[in-house]
C-alpha cells in the first residue's frame, strides 16, 4: 500500500486520524464526511494513495470497480434506499479539495438539491 505522509486521507486509512467508518477492507475505506452535504454523505477512498482519476489508469480497474461496486450496498446500509448521488471531483477545475481520490456518496429520504435541466421536448 502506497501512502503519503502529508495526505489526510492516507492518515485516516492508516488509523492515525479517527473517522466514523462505514466499511473497511484491505483495499478501501468508507467513512462519513465531516461536512455532510446531504442527510447521508460518506466517502469511499482507496487505501492506496491515488491523487485523482488522472493518476488512475487501467491498472487500477479492479480497485475502482470494487469501490463503485460497493457504493449501492453501502448507500442502502446507511439508509439511502431510493437512490443516491455519486460525485468524484478531480483537480482544481473539478473543485477537488483533498488530493486523494475519493468518491462522495450522498443520499437521503428525499431527492437531493436541484433536479437539473428540464427534459427535452419532442
Short key terms for the protein model shown above:
122 residues; alpha+beta; 5-stranded antiparallel beta sheet; 5 strands; 19% helix
Describe the structure.
The chain is an alpha+beta fold. The chain is 19% helix and 20% strand. The protein is built from two helices and five strands. The chain has a five-stranded antiparallel sheet, covered by helices on one side.
- Largest beta sheet: what is the strand line-up? 1-2-3-5-4
Give the distance, in angstroms, between the N- and C-terminal Cα atoms: 52 Å
SS-derived structural category: alpha+beta
Give the total of beta strands. Answer: 5
The average pLDDT score comes to 91
What percent strand? 15-25%
Q: What is the multimeric organization of the chains shown? A: single chain
Fraction of residues in H or I helices: 10-25%
Element-by-element helix/strand order: HEEEHEE
What can be said about the biggest beta sheet?
Answer: 5 strands, antiparallel
Rounded radius of gyration (Å):
15 Å
**Which stretches are poorly predicted, pLDDT < 50 over at least 5 residues?**
none
Question: DSSP helix count?
Answer: 2
Shape: globular
Helices and strands, with pairings:
Blueprint: H1 8-13, E1 21-24, E2 28-32, E3 40-46, H2 61-77, E4 84-87, E5 103-107
Antiparallel strand pairs: 1-2, 2-3, 3-5, 4-5
Task: Give me a quick take on this structure.
The protein has helices spanning 8-13, 61-77; strands at 21-24, 28-32, 40-46, 84-87, 103-107.
